[in-house]
Amino acid sequence: MTKQVVNGLMVFTFLVGICYACSSDNNDVDGNDGNDVTGILHVAYEEFGDNVSVTLTGNTVIIETNGMPNHTSPYWSNTTSREIDGITTPASAVNHPLFVEPTATSYTRMSPGNIDDFNGSYTLSVSSEPGKANSTTSTGLGAIGIAVSGAVIYNDEEGPNVPLDNAVSSLDYSGAHTGPQSFHYHLEPKAWSNDDHKLIGVMADGFFLYGRRDSENGEYPSDLDSSGGHFGPTIHNPDGEYHYHIQNDLYLNEYYILFPGDFQGTPSSIQ
Fold this sequence. Notes:
Radius of gyration: 20 Å
Shape: globular
Order of helices and strands: EEEEEEEEEEEEEEEEEEEE
Strand order of the largest sheet: 14-15-11-10-16-17-19-18
């Protein structure tokens, strides 16, 4: 397999008998004659960590993750037990290699469960060329995107019509906590992005989410729509494309919510 970057897209060329992860558009795919088959995958997917696999099949990008982040957190298993709302998270014999002491939160405020207590995996299938829909779609509870770290992205609610306000004290320095099904982010993930233009992840409608600043001039974008999106250059596509930003609006005078708006594209379910 060979690859090259063309206008922000990663072009993969396979020389195989049968191609299971490639784009067959405008190609005469013959599984028996050894012809080259070319697929196109956005170069931004190169930033996803080892916990994530990305496969291109036709025009569909399949993103799979084990749900585990690749960075430190106090939510990794550790030798300190904690209890909240009558639920005890027992101590482990040793600290996980990625465990760090809580700073933004505390043992008495942390949610039940550790990251390595969750064994679920997530799969998201999106178009390799996502487009805006005729109408927006509201986000639901649970995973609404997959971060480059391998963990998933949630919206600004802690439960049905329950704002994040009372749970924000349980979030670690990367704006994440556990429960009920996963370790997930609500706020700007300072483990790798803090007031910058870095890639956060891909949302369920296939559009990418970036940090609060523009890559072109380092300023905060002033033309964002109600979903925090606009057309413009990114670190992966200088020619420009539609993408989301973490909106630069303070929440509780201190935090930045990852995705408080609606999907501008047509979202797929994250299974």
